[in-house]
Task: inverse folding
């Protein structure tokens, strides 16, 4: 992992190079869209952990080239956090989540940027930025 010193930590999964996809297509606002929907009453009944799972699933289904997550593991225990990290790693390695393996070479690279709430998954990141 590469390290750049600073006051805030952002970890990345993915190339982080000139091959990285453009940020203008990054998925944003999933939570605000979900909460503002008139049919969002179901989400108010869910515990925060379940809401986090729904929002992460929505983000992965969108198959973004760049996925930016703020403290994605904060609402999970150690074992569930590992499952989330594996899903994010799969998003990067397979250039998408749950997509057919025979189309891998046709897909653009994926990058996941996340701000960690602890050091649990930072060491496994491809790049660590201290901003």
Result:
């Amino acid at each position: 992992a590469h390290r750049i010193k600073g006051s805030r930590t952002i970890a990345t999964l993915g190339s982080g190079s000139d091959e990285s996809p453009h940020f203008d297509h990054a998925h944003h606002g999933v939570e605000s869209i979900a909460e503002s929907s008139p049919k969002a009453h179901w989400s108010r009944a869910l515990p925060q952990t379940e809401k986090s799972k729904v929002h992460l699933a929505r983000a992965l289904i969108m198959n973004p080239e760049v996925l930016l997550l703020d403290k994605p593991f904060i609402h999970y225990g150690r074992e569930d956090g590992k499952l989330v990290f594996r899903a994010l790693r799969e998003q990067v390695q397979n250039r998408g989540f749950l997509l057919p393996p025979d189309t891998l070479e046709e897909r653009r690279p994926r990058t996941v940027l996340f701000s960690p709430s602890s050091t649990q998954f930072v060491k496994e990141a491809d790049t660590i930025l201290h901003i």
Observations:
- Residues 8 and 69 are 14 Å apart (CA to CA).
- Helices lie at 30-36, 41-44, 48-61, 78-93.
